[in-house]
Structures are given as structure tokens and as C-alpha cells.
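F.,

This is the one I mentioned.
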């Protein structure tokens, strides 16, 4: 059983059963020298039908589950896949280095870029190291330092957003979490260099928008982006964790909802079954879209970039207010 199968989501049970049958047949054929070609093809066709049927009719809650899938590629996976000569930069020059916020300089197809991203980690040890992608004030101040660096040397910025939200601990609040997030949003609006943000998993609350107030906001097909987590929303509005699914629908946090509302600019299609089922295809699609958007933005002047970003978010606010 491969990792993706072993960690299948609850709505993928039928898919899991067929995958297990195919794997069992292949093992049996090796041991007993059987011809399983016909039966394997039949099961593979059935598997394809089940995956298509399941993923064509996903609910918002199911999309949230996919966005949080433990095998979904994270920030460092994208950096390792297509950011060449990446050099990690550390520290906020005030307090400490926050490893949840990954920052550095590299090249995308020869174009020098500054990269900012939230890293969740892929196993117990790395999740603890990266604090599950929840940055503290020093993480957001490090991001601001990277934005200043990019602005000074006229380097475009790519940010990978993947966080349930900023770290809510007492120590973070004591060091000015709210101010750090607000200052990071302000910095995003002040810089005069291209800024592209991509939500690769979860885009949670101010912890996400602090590095996603960008010229272009992109989302992977099954990622989510919202003002609060579904669980947090359910606990506030209904005072019950049983209403998480209803909260997910009400938040309109899917890429499709947000594109219709004009919050994001483009949805990047994922492989059938989600980004975790074919990471190489995911990396290729993301790289292609990032390059396209980057080349478009690099044709704008510094003043045009800043103005375009400001108008984008002012228009967004007016549009949503008018709708509701």
C-alpha cells in the first residue's frame, strides 16, 4: 500500500478499496506467475470512473480536507522542484528566526526572485520544527525584511501560502502579533516590485493575507482561503464543533467561490484526485502559471505595480460590500 492510499480521506473509501484490489492482484501475479492484464484493466477503468465521479462533485468540506491532506506538497517541495540556486535567509534582525516562515533568494527559469512561504512540515519532527506553518511576529517581520530586500534590488516576489493562521500563543501576542501582521500587509501594498501569491493548501485569516496582498493571487484547485477556519467559525457562530461542515459552506472559501467573488485571479488545475496524487504534474502546472504571471507583471513600471495592487484590493472591498 502506498502512502497516498494509506492516508485516503473518508470520502475516498471506494477508491481505496479498488486501489487495494489492484495492488493485491499485482502481488499475487508476482508470486504465482498469473496473467492479470484483463482484470487489472477492468479495475483501473473502474478506479478512473470512481475518481472522476468523486472529484467532480466535491463539497466545500471535502475540498478543505484535501487542502489539509498530510501528503499534499508544501512550500519547500515547490522550492526544491523549480526554484534554482535557492539560498535560505534567516532572522528578523530584532528577535529571532521563525522557521515557519521560509524566506530566501533563488531563480525561476533564470529570473532572480525572492521567495516567501509558510512551511507546515511533512512528519511529526518537521511539523514541530515549523510549528505547523503558524508563524509568530518574527516570521512576519522576516517576511517584511525580504520584501524590503526585493524592493531595493527590484526583484519580483513569489509567496507560497499554506497556514491555518498565525500562531495564537501568549508569547506571540506579547511580541505584537497583530501589529506584525498589519505591518506586513502594509508592506505588501508599499513595495514597487511584482508580488505573486499562491495558496497551495490552507490560506487562513490574517496569517495568510499578511503575505498574500499581491498583484496576482492564485489558488490551487482544491486549496482554501478564508477569514477564519471552519472549526473556528462553527465554534463562534454555533458554539458547536458539529457545525463545521455548515461553516465551511457558509465561508465560501473554495477557489471556485473566491474566483467568482473576484478575490483571486486564477485557479491552477490539480491532477485528478488532488495535488498529492501527482506532485510532478502539480509542480509543472504551478511553474507554468507563475512564469506567465511573472512575465506579465515585469512589463509594468514600479509605480504601476504599486497602483495596480492598491486598486485591486480597494475594488475588492467595494465589490463585496455591494454584493452583501
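My design for it:
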Amino acid at each position: 500500500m502506498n502512502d497516498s492510499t494509506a492516508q485516503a480521506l473518508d470520502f475516498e473509501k471506494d477508491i481505496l478499496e479498488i486501489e487495494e484490489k489492484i495492488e493485491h492482484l499485482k502481488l499475487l501475479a508476482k508470486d504465482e506467475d498469473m496473467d492479470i492484464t484483463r482484470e487489472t484493466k477492468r479495475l483501473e477503468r473502474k478506479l478512473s470512473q470512481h475518481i472522476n465521479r468523486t472529484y467532480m462533485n466535491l463539497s466545500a468540506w471535502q475540498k478543505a480536507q484535501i487542502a489539509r491532506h498530510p501528503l499534499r506538497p508544501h512550500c519547500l517541495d515547490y522550492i526544491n522542484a523549480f526554484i534554482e540556486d535557492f539560498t535560505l535567509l534567516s532572522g528578523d534582525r530584532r528577535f529571532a528566526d521563525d522557521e515557519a516562515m521560509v524566506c530566501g533568494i533563488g531563480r525561476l527559469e533564470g529570473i532572480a526572485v525572492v521567495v516567501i512561504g509558510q512551511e507546515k512540515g511533512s512528519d511529526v519532527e518537521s511539523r514541530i520544527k515549523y510549528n505547523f506553518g503558524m508563524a509568530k511576529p518574527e516570521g512576519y517581520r522576516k517576511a517584511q525584511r525580504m520584501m524590503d530586500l526585493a524592493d531595493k534590488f527590484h526583484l519580483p516576489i513569489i509567496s507560497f501560502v499554506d497556514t491555518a493562521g498565525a500562531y495564537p500563543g501568549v508569547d506571540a501576542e506579547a511580541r505584537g502579533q497583530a501589529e506584525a501582521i498589519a505591518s506586513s500587509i502594509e508592506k505588501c501594498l508599499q513595495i514597487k516590485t511584482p508580488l505573486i501569491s499562491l495558496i497551495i493548501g490552507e490560506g487562513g485569516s490574517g496569517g495568510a493575507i499578511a503575505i498574500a496582498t499581491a498583484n496576482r493571487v492564485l489558488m490551487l484547485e482544491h486549496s482554501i482561503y478564508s477569514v477564519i477556519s471552519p472549526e473556528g467559525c462553527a465554534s463562534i457562530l454555533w458554539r458547536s464543533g458539529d457545525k463545521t461542515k455548515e461553516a465551511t459552506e457558509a465561508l465560501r472559501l473554495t477557489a471556485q467561490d473566491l474566483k467568482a467573488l473576484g478575490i483571486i485571479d486564477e485557479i491552477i488545475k490539480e491532477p485528478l484526485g488532488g495535488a498529492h496524487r501527482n506532485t510532478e504534474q502539480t509542480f509543472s502546472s504551478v511553474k507554468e502559471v507563475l512564469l506567465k504571471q511573472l512575465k506579465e507583471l515585469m512589463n509594468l513600471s514600479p509605480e504601476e505595480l504599486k497602483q495596480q495592487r492598491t486598486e485591486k484590493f480597494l475594488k475588492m472591498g467595494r465589490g463585496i460590500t455591494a454584493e452583501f
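The chain has two domains: 10-57, 64-323.

Talk soon.
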